[in-house]
Write a structure and sequence with these properties.
By secondary structure, the chain is mostly helical. The chain contains six helices and no strands.
């Protein structure tokens, strides 16, 4: 859990470094490397946290919920930053893409809260499609930070949006099943 909290604390460091890239041409290269390094730390800490939890059987509902929260905070914060007009330093994230990701996260949070209130304990373990969605989103943010070409990013925006939508639909379906199973129970 300490790695997850550390990951959350790295988000403002990334935002500071990314913003520093936009301020001066002279410091932009070093700030970009710092931002990329912080992103790498965020990604590695996420992988290490999950591996350690499974390896030492430290998996808990609280840990899984915090992990998902850290992922969503990092994604939304980075994407929100890239909504700004920082071209040519960074490609601009399309507003429709950001709205889709934000709506997904709000829907998932609302569903989690409603189910946890009704059911008590909600299975918040990442599914394979959620992991793929998070990995693609991490790749997208990394490529935007690295200054990748708009053509590659446009294709990745479309892929990320599709995978996020499919993943969300799968989670909503699982939540709906949980809801219905409680209604059907005597």
């Amino acid at each position: 859990m300490a790695l997850t909290v550390g990951r959350i604390l790295l988000i403002p460091v990334f935002l500071w470094a990314a913003y520093a890239c936009t301020l001066a041409e002279e410091g932009a290269t070093s700030a970009r490397w710092i931002a990329l390094g912080v992103l790498l730390l965020i990604g590695l800490s996420d992988l290490l946290d999950g591996w350690l939890a499974r390896r030492w059987n430290l998996v808990s509902d609280l840990g899984a919920t915090l992990d998902a929260t850290a992922d969503k905070l990092a994604q939304v914060a980075c994407l929100a930053f890239f909504l700004g007009d920082y071209e040519p330093t960074f490609a601009k994230v399309p507003l429709a893409f950001f709205a889709l990701i934000l709506a997904r996260d709000i829907l998932m949070l609302a569903g989690f809260l409603v189910l946890s209130r009704r059911v008590g304990e909600v299975d918040s373990e990442h599914r394979w499609h959620g992991r793929v969605s998070s990995a693609l989103m991490f790749l997208l943010v990394t490529l935007v930070t690295a200054g990748a070409s708009q053509g590659w990013l446009d294709a990745l925006f479309v892929l990320c949006a599709g995978v996020a939508a499919l993943s969300t639909a799968s989670y909503v379906r699982a939540g709906w099943r949980s809801w219905r199973s409680l209604k059907a129970a005597p």
